[in-house]
Design brief:
The chain has 153 residues and is mainly alpha-helical. The protein has helices at residues 12-19, 24-27, 50-57, 65-74, 78-89, 91-94, 98-105, 112-117, 121-129, 131-143, 145-152. The longest helix has 13 residues, at 131-143.
Length: 153
């Protein structure tokens, strides 16, 4: 079974909207690396321009669809990303793989998208090391999902 247990695939993107915590879209706002939507008095829900989305998504746009989808979904859970990175730093966890990794992750109360990134420490670290960017990604994904998906195609 391996990590495939955690990979939802592109179809999960449509399901994510219903799984987000209530009010999450209203409380999240992009950081400063890409200008925030609604700057200069514009309504917040106007969102990112196509150029801004292209710049925001450039670091991950060429990843395989399943990995890209998991990164987009996981971006909504920055605290869990940080927990997963600390968990990976434990020497007892570094050697885990396959079914042993899946069994060890099962009882942990993280979103499945975060769990699915544990076998991809570089991508998990990208999300954890650049939290401003991750928050911007989460905001765009939450509020402009179809634009985000169009931008990465």
């Amino acid at each position: 079974m391996g990590f495939r247990v955690w990979v939802h695939g592109v179809s999960a993107v449509a399901l994510l909207v219903g799984q987000l915590q209530p009010g999450l879209a209203q409380t999240m706002s992009p950081g400063s690396a890409v200008s925030a939507p609604g700057a200069a008095g514009q309504p917040e829900l106007q969102g990112y321009s196509q150029e801004q989305l292209d710049a925001l998504l450039a670091p991950i746009a060429l990843y395989p669809d399943t990995l890209l989808t998991q990164m987009l979904m996981a971006s909504v859970y920055p605290a869990e990303i940080e927990q997963a990175l600390r968990w990976l730093d434990d020497p007892a966890h570094k050697a885990l793989g396959g079914d042993a990794l899946t069994a060890t992750l099962t009882p942990i109360n993280w979103d499945p998208s975060v769990k699915s990134l544990v076998p991809f420490p570089a991508q998990l670290a990208m999300l954890g090391d650049k939290l401003d960017w991750t928050e911007q990604l989460a905001w765009a994904f939450t509020n402009q999902q179809s634009d985000v998906m169009d931008a990465v195609q």
